[in-house]
Amino acid sequence: MPSRAAFAGLAALSLLIGACGGGAATWTTPPTATEASRPTASRGPSMSSAMASVPPPSSAPASTAPASGSPAVAGGEILGTLEVRGFDLGFDPAALSVPAAGRYEVTLVNDGAIPHDFTIEGQAPIYAEGGQTVTGEVVVPEGGAPFLCSIPGHAAAGMTGEIQVEDATGEASPGPSPAGSDDGHSGPPPETEVAADPAAPAPVPYDARAPERLEGEVHDLELVMTEREMTVAPGFVQKVWTFGDTVPGPVMRVKVGDTIRVRLVNPTENEVTHSLDFHSSQVAPNDEMRSIAPGEELIYEWTAEYAGVWMYHCGTAPVLHHVANGMYGMVIVEPAEGLPEVDHEFALVQSEWYLGPQAELTSLEKA
C-alpha cells in the first residue's frame, strides 16, 4: 500500500463535474508598456489595471430588438405620458392604467446598474442603460397590454407588468395576462419536459484533474466570457454563458500571498452584461465586481490572503440565472508553503442543469 493517500479530492460549491468543455481557455496576456515597472508575472508580464476604453453599445442587445415584421408605433395624437422606473429586477409601478386606448409616451428611468427595457409585444423596446432615462412611444390596445423587460432572464426574474384601459366609469378593466401565464405575474410557466434530440452533438467531457499551481507570485490571466450553444448531456443542447468557453470555467490554482490580475472580457458579439465575483478576494463590489456590457472589459486584481477552495461566478442580476446558465468556476488557494504531494488530485464541481427548450437558455423558473 502507498504510504500516503492515493488521491486528494478538491471540491467547490459550483455546478457540474464532468459536463461540458468547449476548448481550452487563454490565460496569459501580452505585456503593456505601462506595466514595465511591476513585478514579473508567472506566465507573462503584467497588464494595465485600467478599464479598457471601449464605448458602450449604441443600442439594445440583439435579444431586445422587436421581432421581424413587428409594427411600428402608430401615428396620431399622444394621449398622455407614463413613467416607469426599472430596477434590478422589477418595474415600479408594475400596474399602470390609462383612460383610453391609443398612443402614449413612456419614460423609462433605469435605477439599476444593468440595462433594462420596456417592451410591449410587437412594438419596439424602449431600452435604457443602467442609470439612464429614455423616452419612447407605445400604442396601448383596447384591451390593455402586458409589458416586460425582454433582456434574457429579466422577465423570468420578475420584470413584468401590465397596462390596463379604464372603462367609462374610470375603473381599470383587466387586460390580457402575459402569454402562457396562469396568474398574470410570473410569466409563462416553466416547461416541465424537454425531449432529447437524437441529432444533438455529443457532449465534450470536462477533465476533472486538478491543474498544477501557477508558478511565481504575480499571475496575469485573461478570462473571456462567451455565449453559445453547448451539449450539456446526451441529446440536450442549451445556450450557455461561460467563463473561458467551458462549463465550469477554468480552475485557477495559486498560493497565499500571490497577486492575481484577471483581464475580464465581454465580447461585442455577446447579448447581455456579465461580471465576475471571486469569493476568495476582498475587493470593492462596485469596482472589480461591476457588470460590463458587450464590448467592454475590466481588470480584476486581488491578493490571495486565505487558503481554501473557493467559488467564482458571475454576479450580474439575476445572479441565479447567470450561475445556473454556466458562469461559475473554482479557485484553489494553497497555503504559502504548499500542499503535501499526493498521487492524484481532482477538482470536483457539483452541479445540475435546469433544462430550458432545446438550444435556448436554461430555465430560471426551475432553478
**Which segments are poorly predicted (pLDDT under 50) over 5 or more consecutive residues?**
1-72, 177-186
Largest sheet: 4 strands, mixed
Largest beta sheet: strand ordering: 3-2-5-8
End-to-end separation in angstroms reads 45 Å
Q: Based on helices, strands and strand pairing, what is the structural class? A: mainly beta
Q: Using only CA atoms, what is the Rg?
A: 24 Å
Choose one word for the global shape. elongated
Mean residue pLDDT: 79
- Helix proportion range: under 10%
Residue fraction in strands: 25-35%
* Count of DSSP strands: 20
How large is the count of helical segments? 1
User: What's the helix-strand series?
Assistant: EEEEEEEEEEEEEEEEEEHEE
What features would you describe in this structure?
With 367 residues, the protein is mainly beta. It contains one helix and 20 strands. The strands form six sheets. A four-stranded mixed sheet has the order 3-2-5-8, with no helix packed on it. Strands 4, 9, 10 and 11 form a four-stranded mixed sheet that branches. A hairpin with a 5-residue loop joins strand 10 and strand 11. The N terminus is likely disordered.
